[in-house]
C-alpha cells in the first residue's frame, strides 16, 4: 500500500466535498493586534519592550504581514515602546509592516506622525470612531460631528503621508445609512482601507457575509473598486470569532485581524494562531511561513502577558496531541508500526503535530490498555518483564487520573 501522501483517499475531506461552497481567494493578509487590543484585557500584563520585540520577530517569522504596535495617544510609555519596536523592525529588516491605533482626533494621530518622521517609516493609522446607534446615543454624538471628525483625521493622515485605515467601531450593530455616510466620507477624503469591527462579538457568520456584501457593493457604487481594501476585526463574545474571520475572507475581506491566544477585552479577540492553523489546513495559506515558530510565539505571549495557555487549547495546549485512551493509543501505535509518520500523526488528529514541532503523546491512566504502557516505556528506552507492564496497568486502573512519570518509574523499579 502506498503512503497517505500518495493516496488521497486515505482521508476523505468533506471540507472540500461540495464545489458550490465558496473558497478563500488568494491575496489576503493577516493583521496582529496582540500588542494593542490584546493588552487592553483587564487580566493581561503589558509586556516589557524586549518581549514585545521578540513577539514581533516571531510574528514576522510565521508570515504575519501587519502589526498594530500600540495606541501612542495613550501616553509616554506607548510612544517610547512604539518607536523602539518600529526601529527594531527596520534594523532587523523584518517584513512585517507597522500600524498604530488612534481615535479620530488629531491629538491621537499627531504622535504617530512624529514617530513616523523620526524613524523614516510609513506607519498605517487605524483611526477609529463608534458607529452603532447605541454608541451614538450614549455619547450624544450627531452625524455631522462624526463626519467632521473623521474627515479631519483622514485629511491629517494624507497630509503626513500616513496610510489611513478608517475603523468603524461596533460596525456589526450599526445602521446601513450611517455606515454608508461614514464610509463614503472616508473614501472621499483618502482612506485606503475600511475596517469592519465586531467590537462586542455580536456577529454570526450570516451577519459577516451580509455586512461585507453591503460594504463591497457600496465601494463599487461610489467608484472605489480596486482602490479600497476591506478589513475584518472580530471579538469572541459568542465564541464565533475564528469562524467569522474565515467567513470574512470568503466574503470579500482583504485582511483579517486577530491576537495570539485570542487575548483581548472581555473574552478576547479572534485567535490569530487558530486562524493560521485553519488557513494552512484549508491549503490557502500564502507565502513561506515557519509555523513551527507558532509554539514559541504562544509561549512568549503567555509568559510576557501572564496568560496561561489552557490545557485543551487547540494545537498549543498541553493536551492537544496527548491521549491515554486505549483505543486511541492502539491506533497510533499500529500506525507507527507501519513505519508511516504521516499516518501516525493523523490517525486520531486532524491537525499534524509535527508541523508545529510537537508529537503525539501517549500516557497511562484508568482508560488505558496494555499497549499504552509498552509504548510509554519504549519511548523512554525502558525494558521490563511483561508482568511489570501488567502491574503498571493494574495500578492505573485503580486511579482516577493519569499516572505521573514518578509513579510509573517507581513501579518499574519495584519490579
User: Which structural class best describes the helix and strand composition?
Assistant: alpha/beta
| Fold-level CATH name of the largest domain | TIM Barrel
DSSP helix fraction: 40-55%
Major β-sheet strand ordering: 1-2-3-4-5-6-7-8
Strand and helix map with partners:
Layout: E1 29-32, H1 49-61, E2 66-70, H2 76-91, E3 97-103, H3 106-119, E4 124-130, H4 133-139, H5 143-159, E5 164-169, H6 176-189, E6 193-198, H7 205-221, E7 229-234, H8 241-250, E8 255-258, H9 272-281, H10 293-305, E9 322-323, H11 326-337, H12 341-346, E10 361-362, H13 370-379, H14 386-396, H15 405-414
Parallel strand pairs: 1-2, 1-8, 2-3, 3-4, 4-5, 5-6, 6-7, 7-8, 9-10
Amino acid at each position: 500500500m502506498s503512503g497517505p501522501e500518495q493516496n488521497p483517499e486515505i482521508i476523505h475531506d468533506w471540507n472540500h466535498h461540495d464545489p458550490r461552497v465558496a473558497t478563500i481567494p488568494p491575496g489576503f493578509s493577516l493583521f496582529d493586534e496582540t500588542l494593542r487590543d490584546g493588552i487592553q484585557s483587564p487580566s493581561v500584563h503589558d509586556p516589557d519592550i524586549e518581549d514585545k520585540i521578540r513577539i514581533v520577530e516571531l510574528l514576522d517569522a510565521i508570515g504575519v504581514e501587519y502589526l498594530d504596535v500600540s495606541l501612542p495617544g495613550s501616553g509616554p510609555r506607548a510612544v517610547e515602546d512604539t518607536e523602539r519596536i518600529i526601529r527594531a523592525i527596520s534594523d532587523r529588516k523584518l517584513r512585517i509592516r507597522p500600524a498604530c491605533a488612534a481615535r479620530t482626533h488629531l491629538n491621537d494621530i499627531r504622535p504617530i506622525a512624529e514617530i513616523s518622521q523620526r524613524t523614516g517609516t510609513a506607519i498605517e493609522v487605524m483611526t477609529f470612531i463608534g458607529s452603532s446607534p447605541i454608541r451614538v446615543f450614549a455619547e450624544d454624538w450627531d452625524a455631522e460631528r462624526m463626519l467632521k471628525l473623521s474627515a479631519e483625521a483622514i485629511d491629517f493622515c494624507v497630509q503626513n503621508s500616513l496610510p489611513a485605515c478608517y475603523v468603524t467601531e461596533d460596525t456589526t450593530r450599526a445602521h446601513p445609512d450611517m455606515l454608508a455616510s461614514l464610509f463614503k466620507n472616508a473614501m472621499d477624503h483618502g482612506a485606503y482601507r475600511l475596517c469592519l469591527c465586531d467590537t462586542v462579538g455580536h456577529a454570526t457568520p450570516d451577519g459577516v457575509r451580509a455586512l461585507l456584501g453591503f460594504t463591497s457593493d457600496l465601494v463599487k457604487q461610489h467608484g472605489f473598486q480596486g482602490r479600497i481594501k476591506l478589513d475584518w476585526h472580530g471579538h469572541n463574545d459568542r465564541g464565533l470569532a475564528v469562524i467569522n474571520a474565515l467567513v470574512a475572507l470568503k466574503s470579500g475581506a482583504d485582511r483579517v485581524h486577530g491576537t495570539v491566544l485570542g487575548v483581548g477585552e472581555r473574552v478576547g479577540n479572534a485567535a490569530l494562531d487558530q486562524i493560521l492553523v485553519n488557513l494552512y489546513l484549508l491549503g490557502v495559506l500564502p507565502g513561506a511561513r515557519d509555523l513551527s515558530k507558532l509554539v514559541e510565539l504562544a509561549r512568549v505571549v503567555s509568559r510576557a502577558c501572564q496568560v496561561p495557555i489552557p490545557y485543551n487549547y487547540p494545537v498549543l495546549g498541553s493536551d492537544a496531541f496527548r491521549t491515554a485512551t486505549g483505543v486511541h493509543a492502539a491506533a497510533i501505535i499500529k500506525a507507527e508500526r507501519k513505519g508511516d509518520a504521516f499516518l501516525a500523526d493523523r490517525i486520531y488528529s486532524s491537525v499534524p503535530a509535527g508541523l508545529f514541532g510537537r508529537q503525539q503523546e501517549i500516557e497511562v491512566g484508568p482508560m488505558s490498555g496494555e499497549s499504552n504502557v509498552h509504548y510509554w516505556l519504549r519511548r523512554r528506552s525502558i525494558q521490563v518483564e511483561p508482568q511489570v507492564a501488567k502491574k503498571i496497568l493494574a495500578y492505573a486502573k485503580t486511579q482516577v487520573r493519569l499516572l505521573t512519570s514518578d509513579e510509573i518509574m517507581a513501579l518499574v523499579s519495584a519490579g
